[in-house]
Fold each of these.
Amino acid sequence: MTQPKIVIQNASFGYNDQHLVWENINIQVNERDCLCLLGPNGSGKTTLLNCMNGTFPLKNGTILINGKNIKSYSIGEMAKTIGIVYQEHSAPFPYSSLEVVRMGRTPYLGMFETPSKEDTELAYSIMQDLGIGHLAAKSYTQISGGERQLVLIARTLCQEPEIILFDEPTSHLDFKNQAMVLRTIKRLSNNGMTIVMTSHFPNHVWKIGTHVAMLGFNGMVMQGTVDEVMTEKYLTETYKVEVKIYETETDKAKLRYCEPIFE
Amino acid sequence: MALKKKMESEVIEKRISAWQWLLMAIIPLSLLFLSLFLGRYVIPPKQVFQILGNKLLGFHFIPTWTSSAETVILQVRLPRAIMAALVGAGLSMSGSAFQGMFQNPLVSPFILGVSAGASFGAAVGLVLELPVLAVQGLAFLFGILAVGIAYFLAHIYKATPILMLVLSGMVVSAFFQAMLSLIKFIADDEEKLPAITFWLMGSLGSIKVKDLAIAVVPISISMAILFLLRWKLNVLSMGDRESRSLGVNNELIKAVIIITTTVITSVAVAFSGIIGWVGQVIPHFCRMIVGPDHRVLIPATMLVGAAYLILIDNFCRLLTANEIPLGILTAVVGAPVFAYLLRKTKGGWN
C-alpha cells in the first residue's frame, strides 16, 4: 500500500471567527485518484481546494501531502508538488502562450534566474503533447476560453507536479470546449496523475471521476467511489432539489446522467 | 525529432536580434556624445574633440580654447547628459517594473506617492533656505517616507494586495500634495514660492559632477536588481494567486521591487525635480516594439528611456534662451504620445 497523496484530518476553515465555511472534513486522496468535489454554490469547494495547496491556512485540523504537514512546505516546494488550474484567468499583457506555459518552470528557477533553452523545449513539447502546439506563438489574451484552459493545464504540467487541483475547469465553456478540457483531464488521470477537481456539473463525475466528495452547507454529505456516492439520494440531499439519474446507451458506451426535477 | 522540435520552438520565439540590441544601445550613447557639442555657449566641434581627447584619452593637443570651454564640456554638459541618461533609464525601468507588478500597462512609477512626498520634502527645504544638498536630501527622504507609509497602509493579512497599494498610494499622494500646498501658501511669494514652483517643474540644469557621483551608485544598483528580477515580473504580472501557485514568494518580490524603484525614483526626483510621463510612456512605447516579455522589455526600456531623456533635455537647452524646465517638455511631448499609443493599442490589452 503506497502512502496516500493527500490526507485531510478534522479540518475546519472560516474567513472570520464567527462563521465556519465547513468543519470536520476528512478526506483521503490516493495516488492516481481523480477526486471530484461537488456541492452547491457557497459550500466551500474552492476554499477547500485553496487549503489543499496552502494558500489558505486551516482554522483547525491538519493536511498532509505525501505524509508531510502542509505547514512545513515552502511556497516553492509546494509548487513542485501541487499544481493548480484556477477557473478563470486573464492576463494584463499579451504574452505568447508558450511564454505562459514556460512560467510553469518558475519553481525550479532561482530568484534571479530566467528559464533556459531546455525549459522552453520542455514547455513546447508539453504543448505539442496536449495538442496545442499550434497555439504556442499565439497571444494568450486572444485564444478561446477552452484553449486558455489547456494552456494553463500545460503550464501546470510544466511544474512537473505530483498532484493537480482543478477549480471548475469547465465553467464558462461551451460543449466543445468542455469536452476538450475534460478529455485532457481524463488523459492525465489515466496516465497516473493524482487529481482533485471541483465541479458544478455532477454529470462530469461519471465521465472522469474515480472518487467523489459532496460538500453540503457546513460539512461533508458523503464521500466514496463514484458508484457509492452518485445516487439520487445523496445528490438530492446535497443540492436541496430533487435529482433523478438516467441511463442511456450510445453505440460506444453506457452513459449515466442526472437532471434536477422542478416545475 | 528532438532536433526538429527545438528548431520549431526557436522559430516561434520572436527574438530581438543582436543588431536590434546594438542599435538600441548605440542611440543613447551617440545622443550622449552629441549633447556635448550642443548648447548656448558655442564651442567649435574640433575643440570639443580635442578637449575630450586630452581629458579622457590622454592625448596632448595644444589648448586653443579657454578654460571655461573645458569647464562647460566636462563639468556641465557631460554630467548633465549622463544624469539625463541615468534618470531616463531609471524612471522608465521603474515604470515598466511597476506596470508589471500592478498588472496594468498604464501605471506610472509615481503611483505610490514618491513624487508627492519628495515635492513636499524639497519645498520644506526651500522654505527653510537650506543648502542644496539638504533640499535634495529632504526630497529623497520624504519620497522614501511616502512610499513607506503607502506600503504599510496597504499591508493587511500578511499580504499587500495590489488594489490596496493603489488606493493607499492615492491617499498618501493626496496628503503630501495638501501639505505641499500648505507650504506654498505660507511661503514668501517674492523668492521662495517661485523657487518651489521651479523645482517642481523639474530640471537637470544645475547637475554637477558631485551630484552624479552621489546618484550613480544607488540608481545603478537598483536598476541591476530590477534587471535580474525581470523574469519574475512576468510571473508576478499574472496575478498574486497565479504567481504564488507557481512558487513565487509574492511578498518578498513585491517588497524588493518597491524598494528598488523607490530608491531610483526618489534619487531621480531629488536631483532633477518632478519629471513626469517618462516612466509611463517609454515602457508602453517599448512594449509596442519588443513585446510584453519583461526579459526583453526591461533592458529595452532602460536604453530607450536614457535616449529619450537626453534628447528632450537637449531640446530644453536649445529651444529658448531661458531653459524650458525639463518636466514641462516631457509632459508636452509625453502626454500626446501617450494618448496616441493609448488609441493605437486600445489600452494595451492586445
Amino acid sequence: MTLDEIKEILQAKVLTCDSDMSIEVEGSCSADLMSDVLAFSTPGVLLITGLVNDVVIRTAEVATIKAIVFVRGKKPKRETVALAERKNIPLLATNLSMFEACGKLYEKGLRCRVNMGKMKV
Amino acid sequence: MQGEHGKNESVETLEGVFFITGKDFANAGVASIELKAILEKRGLNHDVIRRAAIAAFEAEINVIIYTPAGMMRYKITPDYLKVVVEDMGPGIEDVELAMTEGYSTAPDYVREMGWGSGMGLPNIKKNTDELKVTSTPREGTILEFIIDFKKRSNT
C-alpha cells in the first residue's frame, strides 16, 4: 500500500515537506510503547502511534520504519517534524483513533507485520 | 551526550565511545543512531545494521532510565561488532529476572514516555550473537554484546 493511499483512507495530513508519497509500506505495526516497536516491528513497515516526540523518529530510524502515522489528532512539534525530514521519514497525522485507523487500513488490505517471537499469554 | 571517535582508527578496526547522561530522555537514541551511521559507512548489510542499532538503542535507553550516567564503547572489526555499555549504577539485583520478557522495574513516568515494557534485555539478546551482563548491586552494570557479521539473522 502506498503512502498516498494511506493518506486517502485515513483522511490524513502530511506533516513533512517533500515526502515521496508513492513509497510502499509492506505492512504495519501499531504501538505507543517504543520498547515494543523496537522489540516486535519488522523492517519497512508503517508505524501507527499516538506518541509524538523526537524519540519516535529515532526509534523509527533504528527500527527501519518507513513512515509514521500519528493518531488521535496528535501533532508533533515543528522540530520533531524537521528531524523526520532530515531522516527522510514521512509523517502523517489523522484525527482517527488508533483502533479506527488500524481498522480502516486493515479493511483496505494492509496487514500487521510484527514479529512477536516466543511471547505467549 | 557527546562522542569521541576515530581514536584508534585503521582500515581494519574502528573504535569509539559515546557518553550517555541519565534521565536525558530528549536525547535517547542519539548515540545509537550515530553508531548506526558508522556501521552504514562500513557498508555492512542491512540486517546486521538494524540488529546492532536496536541492541544499542535498548542498552542506551537502559542507561538513561536507570542510571546517572554511562558510556558506550564500540569496536568494529572486519568480522564483528562489539559494544560495551558501562554505567554508574545502581546495578541489577537479579540479572536472570531482568532477562525475562515483560519484567520491568521502570517507574510510571518512564512507561508514559513509551519505555519500560520489560523487553529491553530480551530484545538485546534476540538481536545479538553474544550477550554478557555483569552487575554489582549499588555499583553498576557492564553489558557487552557481539554481533558476528558472518552469522545469520535471528530476528
